[in-house]
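step 4 of 6: structure.
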Amino acid sequence: MEYLLKNGYVVDPANKIDCERKDIAIKDGKIVESVDESRAKVIDVKDMLVMPGGVDLHSHIAGSKVNIGRLFRPEDHYKDYEVKSGVKRSGVGHSVPSVFTTGYRYAILGYTTVFEPATPPLKTVHTHDELNDIPIVDKACFPLFGNNWFVMEYIRDGKLEECAAYIAWLMRSIRGYAIKVVDPGGVEAWKWGGTVQDFDQEVPRFGITPREIVRGLVKVNKMLGLPHPIHVHANQLGVPGNYKTTLRTLDAVKDLAAGDKPVIHLTHVQFNAYGGVDYLSISSRADAIADYVNKNQHVTIDIGQVIFGDTTTMTADGPFEYKLFTLLRGKWANADVEVETGAGVVPITYSRSNYVHAVMWCIGLELALLINDPWRVFITTDHPNGGPFTEYPRVFSWLMSKKARDRVLKRLPRLARARTNLKDIDREYTFYELAISTRAATAKILGLSNKGHLGVGADADIAVYNINPKEVNPSVDYKLVRQAFSRAYLTMKDGEIVVKDGEIVAAPVGRTYWVNTKAPKDVEDVVIPEVQKLFEDYYTVRFENYYIPESYLACSAPIEPLEPAG
Amino acid sequence: MAELKLKIKAQPPTPIEGEVLTPDNLAGRSVNEILNLETWRGNRRVKLSELFTVEGESASNPSDLHIILEGDLRKVRHIGARMSAGKITINGPVGTFVGFEMSGGTIVVNGDADAFLGMGMSGGVIEVNGNAGDAVGSGYWGTRCGMRGGLIVVKGNVGAELGCWMKDGTIKVGGNADVFAGVRMQGGTIFVAGDAGAKLGAAMTNGKIVVLGNVPNILPSFHIDEIRPNTKVDGDKIQGPFYVFYGDITEGGNGKLFISVGKNPHLKYREAYIL
């Protein structure tokens, strides 16, 4: 099928196109130079905003902890449901929507690629089951390695090659995409009743510090040539004064950077940018983090914005969820994943009048606004930890309009306004910067060359929003921005129209990306039997059953590593 | 008050959603418009005309509208859901979730009501001239807040978990209550004229439960406080004497149980612990 999108204002930062009136030609799911106008279906998108499909690199959409969130929050479901239609399945869920609903809602926002950022390797079969059922969007999952026994022991013994071989074997066995590190060492310490308070404190029983884990995994990541840098959820998340740990984490891998290429992606930094000593004196140190990111090229971050309202926090950081439970005394679920990782789930309601929540809200926006280079700061809500992804348009309007921010800001506690810097920031995002931060840059950092731009040869993932970027002034008409981004006028996925006027019209199957990692054969030949032996001791599944065949994925899309292993 | 009479045609094979049957929805509509309203029967959208016959006339204002439902409504649920004004009279047995999240108005059930009566309600009055099922005045599954206001009166017996997570308002039961009455209660008042089942007030943190009849035992996590000659429920004086217990201390709670002394001689041993 051939399409021609005519007369739209195209914003395509990867190709340096800023609001130019331009036609987009699509053929066989790819963007092409031109199509035969007599045969192609011409869609007039006059004066509308045309962007590449959104790319979300951090959104908890599938896997066992998401499912725990669904199971123990029936009250999250009954007020927000989707009725089945011709192409749509029914579904429920506000902060943890069911799988099909997740795909539809992302498509309606104009997002076409979404990555699940944390899957325990042992439970990745389940993650893939759910990813298979998420329609429309392309997706992948990041296995967790920050508390893995094998990884910690290999790095402690200085056996980086062996560690790389283990990760390579695991990554391709379970069809993972990138190395995710959650609270390195801290989750494992907590499972034994201990804690890791500091970046340089030894993990009890393992004789290794978080610093060594992070550094080791950055090196391994380079050896394996994975397309995405290591994806780190730093230690001390949610603890007042934790910005120091965050800066130490970033600084620890500075010397491992080569050129401008980032080697570490620090995720939902909003939760890791607190000053103060306790929750009464908590304050924003987003300025310190932003300053570091502005001065150093080896790091990218995403913000993890908080949205006021009801949501469910879920993370592989079991100790943090326990801490949250002791504060809130509500529901709490904890999951231990054998020798690999842990996880916890706690519902939360972020409230405007709560001083701590108000400070958190300010920090997320400060990070996005104080970091000058939009290619290195991405907009997320760490769905569903900060808020559901369906609230992204609200975040966009806050970033694009000081007036919109001030409207919320003036309703926050006075002390929260005083201890954050948001009130003094005048910067407002342009459509161009927004497109970088939500599409071009995220696709680039994920190593997806076909995504996030509208150049010839790219996947025809396109979002058209019913807003005229030349006439609308987002800083005043922020409500129009929010409305336009909430319901895409048109979303195309691989050259197929999936959303028309905010309604789902087709629900094709999306790809699942994974990286076909390899390590030198002689090392793997030694490592795999070694792992197998420990497997028999520690695991509840057989070694042979760990492997997920490629045929298990609904639409498998393997990616070759960037450079040969070595 | 304008009266609108809806009679169910036949017992349907699958459940019907009755959310549409509230004065708020039907006020200001002609009988024809009402017949054309849609609702769910099982997984199908059907018109009300397929399910009910409608007589009478509607009012322009919900508070002036009196809806009378006739027939066997055991398969109809969510009647009066989220209503804010007006009156509904149900002549016959009715299904689950009557008065779900209602905030005002009156519902009278001349028959038995099924489970989840007045779930999440915040105001208004529900009167049942029969028995009611489990979890009367509770909250939606998973929420930590049950009934927040209003009055529920059940003339007959009620099922288990009466007033679960209840926060405010009053529930009066003319007959007996099954086990776990007032479980996790956080406020409000429950009055049971008959007997109550075991585990009365388990994990309650606040509120008041008055039982005139027999209770099998009081949880050991309740302390006895005193014996009082009488107490008050919604301003009405209730003649005792009552054992007064407070708890549930496992939750650090300060709920109060008023248990009839005369009907519970087996609790006499607790009197020794009155300080």
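step 5 of 6: annotate
 - The mean pLDDT of chain A is 94.
 - Residues 521-538 of chain A form the longest helix (18 residues).
step 6 of 6: archive
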